[in-house]
Amino acid sequence: MKVNLGCLVLSLFLSVLAIAKQDVPPKVGDTAPEFSLQDTEEKLYDLKKLRGKIVFLIMGNRRIRKEDDKWAEAFQSDYKENEKIVAFIIGDLRSVPGFIPKRFVLSQLKKKPPPLPFLLDWKGKIHQAYHTEKKKPNLYLISTDGKLIYHRKANYSLENYNELKEKITIHLKHNP
Fold first, then answer.
1. Which residues of the chain carry a pLDDT beneath 70?
2. What whole-number distance in Å separates Cα of residue 126 and Cα of residue 25?
3. Please, which residues bridge with residue 31 across strands?
4. N or C: which end of the chain has fewer CB within 10 A?
5. Strand pairing category for 138-142 and 54-61
6. What is the largest CA-CA distance in the chain?
7. Cα(118)–Cα(37) distance, integer angstroms
8. How far apart are CA 137 and CA 79, in angstroms?
9. How many CA atoms lie within 13 A of 112 on its CB side?
10. CATH 3.40.30.10 fits 27-174, yes or no
């Protein structure tokens, strides 16, 4: 059996390249990784269906919930009435112990709801796609056409928040 060595090498190279690309975090200018997640009321949110709006994502876990909420509260204060912008907290729920029922987690989130819709990433797949850090909120601003236009891993501060607001203002100015 003859094997074309050139085709074999090319095929191997493309396979390695595809695997390596999966381990590269998305950066500003890239298309945002897609997601389809439910909130605590089982409403489904799909990033593709949000095209035409600016999407702000606050990604975190239960250990940094207070920091996530600070970002969410500031954002809600300034943009709650703006129909061109939507925002979500996406919770990485992989750290929830397996013996705790999902319905218990949902009931706790409903008792003390976060300031923004809370999307449930039970298996952490979206956090993996975005390469989030566990110790700080991971912030992503996605343009109306689905591109990442801002990314920070940062606790809330007025300086960081003003930087985010500047990116939103610039994008709204160029995409009325």
1. 1-22
2. 12
3. 147
4. N
5. antiparallel
6. 69
7. 10
8. 19
9. 6
10. yes
Q: What is the rounded CA–CA span in Å between residue 46 and residue 172? A: 22
Evaluate whether 84 touches 56 at the Cβ level (below 8 Å).
Answer: no
pLDDT at 17: 52
Q: Does residue 61 contact residue 95 with C-beta atoms inside 8 Å?
A: yes
The reported pLDDT for the residue numbered 96 is 87
Inter-residue contact 148 to 26 (CB < 8 Å): yes
Query: What's the chain look like in SS3?
Result: CCCCHHHHHHHHHHHHHHHHHHCCCCCCCCECCCCEEEECCCCEEEHHHHCCCEEEEEEEEHHHHHHHHHHHHHHHHHHCCCCCEEEEEEEECCCCCCCCCHHHHHHHHHHCCCCCCEEEECCCHHHHHHCCCCCCCEEEEECCCCEEEEEEECCCCHHHHHHHHHHHHHHHHHCC
